[in-house]
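Closing statement on the protoporphyrin IX containing FE sub-project.
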Amino acid sequence: MSISNFTFILMKYVALIFLPYLALVVGYRLFLHPLRAYPGPVLARFSDVYAGFYALGMRLHLVTYRDLKKYGPVIRHGPNKLVFSSQKALQDIYNNERVTKSHVYELTVASGKPSIFNAIDRQRHREKRRLIGQAITDKAMRSFEPTMLEQIDVFIEQIQLASSSTSGPEGSQPVNITDLTKRLGADIVGHLAFGYALNMQTDPTYRFVLQGLAVGSYQANSFMQFPMLKKLGLHNLVTILGGYASRMKYKDMLHKMITSRLSQEKHAQNDLYSFVVDHLDLDGSKNGVKASELWSEALFFFPAGGDTTTTAMSALFFYLAHYRDVYDKLAAEIRQTFDSEVSIRGGSQLSSCRYLRACIDEALRISPPVSGTLWRELYSDELEKGPFLVDGHVIPPGTQVGVSIYALHHNEQYFDDPFTFCPDRWLTEDREALNRMTSAFSPFSLGARGCAGKAMAYLEASLVLAKTLWRFDFTLTSGKLGQVGTMDLIWFSMQEDFKDGTLDEESSFGTFKD
Ligand code: HEM
């Protein structure tokens, strides 16, 4: 028998077995599955390909928003997935001791060791949270603040340098503020996690890490939506394409950071190591967090604390440049509160800047850095203890549930005119409206798995904004660069839903003047 004949017969038998199997699976998921009555796009009701496709295109949060509008407040967005968009569901899912992160988080575990982010076991997570959380409490932030301020001062100097390097048509050179905030975010986290000066703001040597982080987050997000991608070994492909040299460079950097820290005295830096070293389970007798695990936890700080805060700051600059009235009001508040740039630091004066806080909250609402659906499921030992209820729906065992943060933050039931950047909404005297909004505002998620670094995020964003506005006047760059980051409406026919001026890309250009 020739090879081509053999291949043909093989394919025929594969088709004969595989196609009926596929038909059975699709039929079961559409007509017999416990979630069959929930509406949603047909493809999503029987396959994860739907969510996977949009996750790969980085549009899943927008599509989820559109689908919730189209199909109703609870939709089936995967064979075993339900997405909700109410504040009641938010409480029932995330503020619930019976619920844990979904098994898809296991797909993000690197080198076989779960971190605080992807530890699913209740006890294991509690131990990690108790330990790691110590490095990012309000108290820890007060010790770390001088280091953060030093880095922010470098950031201000970098804006100064970039805007004055050559004169542009408006008298100063346009600056891509997103690039600068990314480097700042990573430098701050490098100090907090490893007590190490990566100096990405001033020296390009370690900037390759930013690209690696972006690929890592993209992969993790895609795998969680479409687990088949990981099963097919896509991550190996990325590693191969990324190349041996960059992997070696990364390992070398990690090695340097760890050995440099270990060569110093335990409490020489205000960093993660110093905050937790006395509580590590050094000999493995207490079943606690071991020294070897600490460095993987530290690595998680880069996406957790770097990427998110950077996105928030980038969004803030974007909206301030687009909403001149907001910009003027904020600049006036900062300049009236502080009489010099050096006096800007954490404390009562900074907290008294209510408009600043309102601007940060509004940016986190309109462009939440974590914008997707954070999947959860019932702990297996809770199955016998009574039904799992979410916003009045009894959730069948094995179902992953979540609330789309982006959709909730743009839900008109909670936020009037949700696509308008309006910090004043947070300063309303109307208690009922304020309570309604706060109940749905969840950029940091909530409950036991909510963000541990909230205090750090607010401190960093407040200091960066206050110092930049104190030193500079900035405007949106004119011409094409001024349009960077604006929503590309071609993707969907939903022009009525999304207004021009909504941040889409993670980039925005501004023109800065002293
Ligand atoms: C604006 C900035 C930030 C936003 C919007 C944000 C948002 C979030 C969200 C939504 C989660 C839950 C993720 C999930 O359930 O899968 C989370 C978890 C976490 N975040 Fe943040 N975050 C921010 C900044 C930070 C910073 C600065 C740190 C400090 C390093 C940090 C540390 C963590 C940690 C350790 C977790 C895991 C918590 C756990 O599972 O116990 N975050 N964050």
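DSSP finds 20 helices and ten strands in the chain. With this model delivered, the sub-project is considered complete and its resources will be redirected to Aim 3.
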